[in-house]
Each structure stands twice: as C-alpha cells, then as structure tokens.
Write a structure and sequence with these properties.
alpha/beta, 3-stranded antiparallel beta sheet, 11 strands, binds 2-phosphoglycolic acid
Length: 250
C-alpha cells in the first residue's frame, strides 16, 4: 500500500522521516536501514545527527546498507557515495563501522561483489529503505529499461544521471564515471518498508508519473506502486501535479 504525505515545509518533512527511522531504531534489537545519497535526504541526516547529539537515539545496534556506488571508484574517493554517507551521517553518529555495508566500486570481480552484497542483505533484511527519484525516473542507479527482476548489478549510467553527478562533487562532466553499481529493483523491493522522498518543483512531473502512471520498466521508480508498505514523502512543490485528495497534507 502506498501512503503519500505532503509537508508544508522541508524541516517538518525531514523531521518526519528522521522520526520514522528513529522509531525502528528504538523498537528493533537489530535495526537495518538502507540509506540513500544525493541532495534529497540530507535534511533527514541532519535531524538524525541532532537527535543523536541530544541523546535521543542510539545507533549501536544499527546496520546500514548503501544503495549504490560508482564503478571503478574506491570508497575513500572524495566523490564516492560511501564517503558521502560517512561525511553526512555515519561519522557523526555511533554506528559501528563494521555494520556499514557499501558496494566496493573498485572490486576486481564486480559480479562477485554484487552477489556478496545481495547475500548480505538477504541475511539482514532491510527494515526501512530510503529512496530518492532521479531526473530520469531511476531509483538507486536502476536506470530506465532495468528489469524489475534485477538483483544488485553494474549499470551504464544514463546521460541524465551523469549530468546530475555534477551536483555530487565532480567539477567536470568528463570526470564522472560512466558506470555505476546498484542494488537491483528486486533487492530494493525486498525491504520491509520503502520511504521515497522528493522535494522541489523539478521533481513534480516525475512524482506524478511514478504514482499515477503505469508500472513500467522504462520508468523504474514506478515499481514502488507494487510494494506493500511504502511511504512517499513530498514537499508542496514536488506534489503540485498530483490529483487533489490522493494524499495527506501536514
Ligand atoms: P537527488 O538525487 O536527491 O540529488 O535529487 C536523487 C536520485 O538520483 O536518486
């Protein structure tokens, strides 16, 4: 079932998502959270850090899985998603480093790396997976045309994704890797709950198609319509093209 909630301001939205994560972290003995990079979840991470500093949450027993990475990139590279997650969240909370799972973009055998990642997720199923939507409709790096049956795999990045990478620390388009490695659609759909966040008017068309369009491999994020427990969390701008009455307002 999909529940869509729109928020009148970003801070309320970020706090709401942070609270949903903290609730699972409080309730479960071994919570498992799937984290996303990109600009959208940054406010949520700031709220989580604040809550940790105020001693409102303890991540000692939390396991984390990252969604994706650039192929060929070491996890210490300044533009790697692994480093971005450390810089924006993990280094500021008390999660233990050996409970942080990240795809190794520079693994010698990428197929083996993908297989190992899926096995690790199967062993510790994800309670909440955070997601954003890419400008080409992707979730994680599952680009248009990716099979809904896909497990973790190497992908050729779509031109829109390469362009968006300029927001993630690259100065020149030539420096952006052309391939990524990503949790597959099937992997993502195994999470017990998905929380999809979208902000801003540039996401409004994409959000409409994701929620009101057909479920179609050409628009990967539309798959969330088939998940049994999904929360879509939007600001007013990202929600502006949705049919009135199909979402809750806060
Ligand atoms: P963004 O990226 O949060 O930077 O818009 C979303 C995505 O590509 O999944």
């Amino acid at each position: 079932m999909i529940k869509v909630i729109t928020f009148e301001n970003e801070e309320k939205l970020d706090q709401f998502v942070a609270n949903a994560i903290m609730q699972v972290v409080h309730e479960k003995a071994h919570p498992v959270i799937g984290f996303a990079t990109g600009s959208t979840p940054q406010g949520t991470y700031e709220q989580l850090i604040k809550a940790y500093q105020n001693k409102e949450v303890d991540f000692t027993h939390t396991t984390a899985f990252n969604l994706d990475e650039y192929v060929g990139m070491n996890n210490d590279h300044p533009c790697s998603f692994a480093k971005a997650m450390r810089d924006t969240l993990f280094d500021h909370i008390n999660i233990s480093t050996n409970q942080i799972h990240a795809l190794q973009g520079d693994a010698i055998d990428m197929n083996e790396e993908c297989k190992k990642y899926d096995e690790a997720i199967a062993k510790e199923p994800i309670d909440i997976q955070l997601l954003g939507i890419g400008m080409d409709g992707h979730i994680a790096y599952n680009e248009p045309g990716t099979s809904f049956e896909s497990t973790t795999h190497v992908v050729d990045l779509h031109p829109e994704s390469i362009q968006s990478s300029l927001n993630y620390g690259f100065d020149r388009i030539e420096d952006v890797p052309r391939r990524g490695v990503s949790q597959g659609i099937q992997t993502i759909m195994m999470a017990k709950q998905l929380i999809m966040i979208a902000k801003g008017s540039k996401k409004a068309e994409l959000v409409k198609r994701m929620l009101e369009g057909s479920v179609d491999e050409q628009f990967p994020s539309s798959i969330i319509q088939r998940h049994e427990n999904v929360l879509v969390v939007l600001d007013v701008e990202a929600a502006k093209l949705l049919q009135e009455g199909t979402y809750e307002k806060r």
